[in-house]
Amino acid sequence: MASRLRGTIVKITPGQIHAHVQILWKAIPLSVIVTRASCEDMHLTAGDDINVIIKGTDVMLAKSLSGLLSARNRAKGVVKHIVQGDVLSKVFVESQGDTLHAIITNASLKEMDIHHGDEVTAIVKSTELILSKEIES
Amino acid sequence: MLHVSFKKIWNGFTLDATLEIPFGKITALFGPSGAGKSTILRIISGLETADEGRISYGSEVWFDKLSGIHLPPQQRPVGFVFQDFALFPHLTVKKNVAYGIKEKKHAQEVRDLISLVGLSGYEHYYPAQLSGGQKQRVALIRALARKPGLLLMDEPLSALDWETRRQLQEDLKQILRQFNVTTIYVTHDITEMYKLADYVIALESGKVMRRGTPEEIFLGKKLSTRIQISGKVIGIESDPIMVAVTVMHEDQYIKTLIDAEEIDRMDLKIGDDVIIGAKSSDVILFKTLTKL
């Protein structure tokens, strides 16, 4: 399932076309790029509670991550469960008390030797995150 | 604001509706067949009478059961566009549009309206010589020529093929905005509703179930995805990880790959209405070799 994280908007930096939305999810800062139009339509404001949706196919996993990486969103966690399909696998990673889902190829799963209990880092680029805000009735 | 609140009972069916229609906006009455949508239009226009209730248009009272007020249809500033066009078959395009207004005095306006919907050159054609889309354009400008305070449209595009329908949806949106006419639009097509409506009143079995913007009615949330395409699920091919879901949007099939658990969480089935959401940066454009 796409991961749904509940966070709070800390800062919004609007540009001409895009807006950079910084969110705090538990102890982890998240960086999200949306269009400025979305930001205005959704009336996003610092201090708002917000849902962050992350598609499993947009999540990358790393083991013993080192060096520099441009992706801004990283969460360390522990592998809790793995479902293997014929080509793809879904890896459930527990992080900050929430569960993140990563859909990766079986080839990567095997090459990285990912097993239950392993410590991994889930990585997502800022441009991949989707924001959702409940409509107050 | 048009305030409508009434009750009507016939053949064991109870229509009990309270509607508030904002001026200058397109409000869609959305719901399955038999929900009472068309009857509401007929009651607002005065073609049918409610058993009880009140209808007021700004400060004008059109109907009030208690005070015995019932303004006849011809005294209500209402334009009506029906699914079956309802043009006068023995009158030309020009005469149809000018019907009921002083043709000589409004000759320029009639010309402008005909040109607005791309029918210049067809002034002397009879309805039988026109395509379905052209007939509905004539029906629309005939209604607008009278400068109605309220335009009622009863599934105006449902008798047309997909391509004509899509084109007319775009044109309608533009023309209704341009005229800034308060419109009530009956439809049971989610795509049409999403495309045209500022507000939606969802009806079921003679009752208002929900009201709000299309997003509020169908999603209950606002999404940051700029691409939102409505459609109907017509195929689900299961897989333990990524399920292939085919969605029909107008006459197009869109194949999506969705996380299997997401399908279970939503209890997604064939026939369900859905919104496909995608980030603007998630697409790729290919310029075509020839004009499509």
Give a verbal description of the structure:
- The complex is a heterodimer of chains A (137) and B (292).
- The relative contact order of chain A is 0.24.
- In chain A, 9% of the residues lie in helices and 55% in strands.
- Chain A has one domain: RNA polymerase II/Efflux pump adaptor protein, barrel-sandwich hybrid domain (OB fold (Dihydrolipoamide Acetyltransferase, E2P), Beta Barrel).
- The mean pLDDT of chain A is 95.
- Chain A has helices at 36-41, 106-111; strands at residues 3-14, 18-25, 28-35, 49-54, 60-62, 73-84, 88-95, 98-105, 119-124, 130-134.
- Chain A has 2 helices and 10 strands; from the N terminus they run E-E-E-H-E-E-E-E-E-H-E-E.
- The two termini of chain A are 27 Å apart.
- By secondary structure, chain A is mostly beta strands.
- Chain A has a 5-stranded antiparallel beta sheet with strand order 3-2-1-4-10.
- Chain A is elongated and about 45 Å long.
- With 292 residues, chain B is of the alpha/beta class.
- Chain B folds into 2 domains: 2-218, Rossmann fold (3-Layer(aba) Sandwich), CATH 3.40.50; 227-282, OB fold (Dihydrolipoamide Acetyltransferase, E2P), CATH 2.40.50.100.
- Helices cover 26% and strands 34% of the residues of chain B.
- Chain B has 8 helices and 16 strands.
- Chain B has a 6-stranded mixed beta sheet, with helices on both faces.
- In chain B, a hairpin with a 2-residue loop joins strand 14 and strand 15 (252-259).
- In chain B, helix 3 runs antiparallel to helix 4 and helix 4 (132-145) runs parallel beside helix 5 (162-179).
- Chain B is globular, with a radius of gyration of 21 Å.
- The model of chain B has no long low-confidence stretch (mean pLDDT 91).
- The chains are: A mainly beta (137), B alpha/beta (292).
- Strand 10 (130-134) of chain A pairs antiparallel with strand 12 of chain B.
